[in-house]
Amino acid sequence: DAKTTQPPSMDCAEGRAANLPCNHSTISGNEYVYWYRQIHSQGPQYIIHGLKNNETNEMASLIITEDRKSSTLILPHATLRDTAVYYCIPSRFRDDKIIFGKGTRLHILP
Amino acid sequence: IAGITQAPTSQILAAGRRMTLRCTQDMRHNAMYWYRQDLGLGLRLIHYSNTAGTTGKGEVPDGYSVSRANTDDFPLTLASAVPSQTSVYFCASSDSGSPGYGYTFGSGTRLTVV
To answer: What are the helix and strand counts (H, E) for chain B?
Structure first.
């Protein structure tokens, strides 16, 4: 399984775009990049995933570099409710075992 | 509302007692998982099940057992609880045949072993 590197914490002003980076330089060709977040004391929540194309849904956008060695999760207009720990997880969707790292603790500042 | 139900929400348990944490999903997902979360250690996979009738060991399986008699239920049993099993336990499920929606997690069970 690919290893990931994420900054331990980040701050972002409310209303601004939050850009969360993830390095996954050892990702294999059949691994998707999944992003989850965990708001304090709640269960983790799926955000978005992608293989090699950029993706967007109602929650966020995912930008994957052409070499697939890194990606960026973008929350376009961060709110206080986006304060959470964000996890970047490479996974083959049929692998069936997502292993969480330490993630990035995102603080949205009023 | 479709999702995962975990019970109990919280429990205080005497060391040495047996305890089963319940997890039920109504999404007909084939795969289910149990994680524990401890302060400073993040989420760690305990056991998983790819489909009814099969189970597998995760990162930290010792002291825990699981069964998967049907698609919907995936109970986690602590045969003889120890204080180091004090943790928050999350159950999750996924449709492993589709990458579309990732895992769905329950709200967790907070277990304190004293």
So the answer is: 0, 11
* Cα atoms in the 13 Å half-sphere on the side-chain side of B15: 6
Q: What band does A68 get if pLDDT is binned at 50, 70 and 90?
A: very high
- Give the mutation candidate from A46, A48, A96 for the B interface (greatest B CB count, under 10 A): A96
Task: Using alpha carbons, list the distances in angstroms from residue A18 to A15, A59, B14, B112.
Answer: 9, 12, 44, 36
Structure token pair of residue A36? 């989850």
Residue B106: its chain A contacts at CB < 8 A?
Answer: 43
pLDDT for res B111: 98
Say yes or no: A50 contacts chain B, CB-CB below 8 A: no
Pull the structure tokens for residue A52. Answer: 């090699």
Q: Which residue has the tokens 């331990």?
A: A8
**Average confidence (pLDDT) over B58-86:** 97
Minimum-distance CB partner of B108 among A32, A43, A49 = A43
List phi, psi (to 5°) of B58. -100, -145
